[in-house]
Amino acid sequence: MVEQEHQNSSCPPRPLRRADLPVDTIELAEYLIGKTLIHCLPGGMLRGRIVETEAYPVGDAAGHAFPGKTLRNSSLFLPPGHAYVYLVYGSSLMLNVTSEHRGIGAGVLLRALEPLQGLELMQRLRGTKRLLELTRGPGRLAQAMAIKLSDDGHDLCKPGRLWLADAVGKIGIVSQSERIGLGRNVDPPWRFFERDNPYVSGPRNFH
DNA sequence: AGTGCGATTGACT
DNA sequence: GTCAATCGCACTA
């Protein structure tokens, strides 16, 4: 029998290299679709495939860096490929990937994953067995991946504990829409998602 | 020191 | 579909 029954079990995930990340925030948001997020824990490995992102580029009034650098948003100003983690609504952690250059505050919010590995641990972390409720939505994603506030500023291009790796599987049609949850009426199409993936949160209307 | 408000979620009609 | 919980942060006084 052939050992190589699945691409994922045979070749180890290759980390995303910082030099390969598109500098532009919007390009990075699209680039990250299909890529994987890995968190190695004592209890096992958590791994998911990114299926939905949102760009918060330079000069975007909705971006956390817009009012200027503060203690809370300082990680957004790190070099590209770092984690910016913050708490909203008192209970939900959000995980972003920094973009642009050191000293520039911009990033990409990871909004949904397709769970690949460590599903039982994700189910425990999330308190549900329903697969579609594990990683659909940014807060759920962070909880299922055991992201903590202390992961703020972590280098996601350094393979080890928490890092980004190359794409898995065929990437489907990537659609764009307005971003979700901003109390604004008009918004540029800076949300990217794999159109036919069931783990995408929110509306799937596409441009 | 006090106030208002989220890049959401889960519970409920 | 509606709606409120929840709390760290930024801002005002």
Q: Helix-strand pattern, N to C?
A: HHEEEEEHHEEE
Described by strand count, sense and barrel closure, the largest sheet is:
8 strands, antiparallel
Q: Distance between termini?
A: 45 Å
If you compute it from the alpha carbons, what radius of gyration comes out, rounded to the nearest whole angstrom? 16 Å
Write down the overall mean pLDDT. Answer: 93
What structural class is derived from the secondary structure elements? alpha+beta
Structure description:
- It is a single chain.
- By secondary structure, this protein is of the alpha+beta class.
- It has four helices and eight strands, in the order ααβββββααβββ.
- Strands 1, 2, 3, 4, 5, 6, 7 and 8 form an eight-stranded antiparallel sheet that branches.
- The radius of gyration is 16 Å and the shape is globular.
- It starts with 6 loop residues before the first helix and ends in a 13-residue tail after the last strand.
- The model is unreliable at 1-7 (pLDDT under 50).
- It binds a DNA duplex (13 and 13 nucleotides) through strand 3, strand 4 and helix 4.
